[in-house]
Write a structure and sequence with these properties.
Elements: E1 6-10, H1 15-28, E2 31-38, H2 46-54, E3 60-64, H3 66-79, H4 96-110, E4 114-116, H5 125-136, E5 141-143, H6 154-163, H7 170-173, E6 181-184, E7 189-192, E8 222-229, E9 232-236, E10 239-240, H8 243-256, E11 261-267, E12 273-279, H9 281-297, H10 300-318, H11 325-337, E13 343-350, E14 353-360, H12 369-372, H13 386-402
Parallel strand pairs: 1-2, 1-4, 2-3, 4-5
Antiparallel strand pairs: 6-7, 7-12, 8-9, 8-13, 9-10, 11-12, 13-14
């Protein structure tokens, strides 16, 4: 295969991607263009720019994608109430198509003929990056060093870095730092690998970064009001905010009260089981509140249909099919359902829990007190009609019973 002339690398400035940068230069003799995305990981990104310059990179892209991430990826996913395997809020999964999108955009802008990433051959991220890239740039060439090279251990990576004068963080060199891998963005922090590979091992309290333990959370609950327009939160406690500001504030509030921790054994797309721990304080609040808003404003069968489709939607996001026609079709249906999801939800945060304590919608509420009341009949319907309703719904079971079926 012809060697690429230019490669756009998803670059963090850490050990793996720094080694990949040099490996691409040496293996293919190509120009490497670096792309570093700020999606709210809470790290200073300028060191990545400086390190790329030090390694001879001429074209360096460092972009703040926080608003795009929440507005165009996180919010649409939460309109669908997506949960993978009933628990996981898809914090890593939803960030990968955004990165793939910008890798492709930079490749087009710079005339690059290939893109590269640092995902391993055992994980989900290789699938997510590459499915996203192929959907947007069908003929793009993808170089995944972890599937090509023989640097398959930390020791080999460090040896390669030393040989080629690649700066390495002192903690990495001494084997210090976290005994597991982390991935952070504005929606969550994930922890996996290392000591967490034993599913019976309880993580130490020091592992968690953005949530306090429920035991150490404030003794008094906190009330939070969330205003919705077409299924998206537009204000917190009456203050209008952008999508990224909303999620940042909910992370702060949820983290303060120990909300959003998860310890999960999940099924990876590649077939193996994986144990991961997650902190998703803002997302946990968003899911609970959104369902409460929908409970007031959506028709019963619309809610049921969304609940039927949600696991399918979640699996598509988890497996990297964000740009697929079926996910886009589902999104069209989901977004259409949100026209009347407008109003305010009040939640109470207390020691790791999110409790809905109120919901209102002046224009779009389908809750009619005159119909729902247990007090004197307001003429909603004749209660005697319920007898026929019950008998009709029982007919199939009565027929089966007459035939002696249990």
């Amino acid at each position: 295969m012809k060697k690429p002339a230019k490669v756009v690398l998803a670059y963090s400035g850490g050990l793996d991607t720094s080694v990949i940068l040099k490996w691409l230069q040496d293996t293919y003799g190509c120009e490497v263009i670096t792309f570093t995305a700020d999606i709210g990981q809470g790290e200073e990104l300028e060191p990545a720019r400086k390190k790329a310059k030090l390694m001879g990179v001429k074209k360096i892209f460092v972009e703040d994608l926080r608003e795009e991430f929440v507005r165009d990826f996180v919010f649409p996913m939460f309109r669908a109430n997506a949960l993978y395997e009933g628990e996981y809020l898809l914090g890593t999964s939803i960030a990968r198509p955004l990165i793939a999108k910008h890798l492709v955009e930079i490749a087009r802008k710079t005339g690059a003929d290939a893109i590269s990433h640092g995902a391993t051959g055992k994980g989900n991220d290789q699938v997510r990056f590459e499915l996203g890239a192929y959907a947007l740039m069908p003929e793009v060439r993808i170089i995944a060093p972890w599937r090509e090279w023989d640097l398959l251990s930390r020791e080999k990576l460090l040896k390669y870095a030393d040989k080629h004068g690649i700066p390495v963080d002192f903690k990495k060199r001494k084997g210090g730092g976290a005994p597991y891998s982390m991935d952070a963005n504005l929606l969550h922090i994930s922890y996996e690998g290392g000591i967490l590979e034993d599913p019976a091992f309880e993580p130490e309290e020091s592992m968690w970064r953005i949530t306090v333990s429920p035991e150490k959370a404030p003794a008094r609950p906190e009330i939070v009001d969330l205003d919705y327009v077409r299924g998206d939160i537009v204000a917190v406690n009456g203050k209008k905010m952008s999508p990224a500001q909303v999620l940042t504030e909910l992370n702060r509030l949820g983290g303060k009260h120990g909300v959003g921790r998860l310890d999960l054994v999940e099924n990876r797309s590649v077939g193996m089981k994986s144990r991961g721990c997650y902190e998703t304080p803002g997302g946990t609040i968003m899911l609970k509140a959104h369902r409460a808003m929908e409970s007031l404003t959506l028709d019963r069968e619309v809610v049921a249909l969304k609940d039927d489709l949600m696991p399918r939607y979640a699996r598509l996001v988890y497996a990297g099919y964000w740009f697929s026609p079926e996910r886009k079709l589902l999104q069209t249906l989901v977004d259409a359902s949100q026209e009347h999801v407008n109003g305010r939800v009040r939640v109470k945060l207390y020691k790791g829990t999110v409790l809905v304590v109120g919901r209102t919608s002046k224009k779009d509420s389908l809750f009619d007190t005159a119909i729902a009341t247990f007090e004197e009949d307001q003429g909603a319907y004749n209660q005697a009609d319920a007898e026929g309703f019950i008998k009709l719904n029982a007919l199939r079971m009565r027929i089966a019973a007459r035939h002696g079926r249990k």
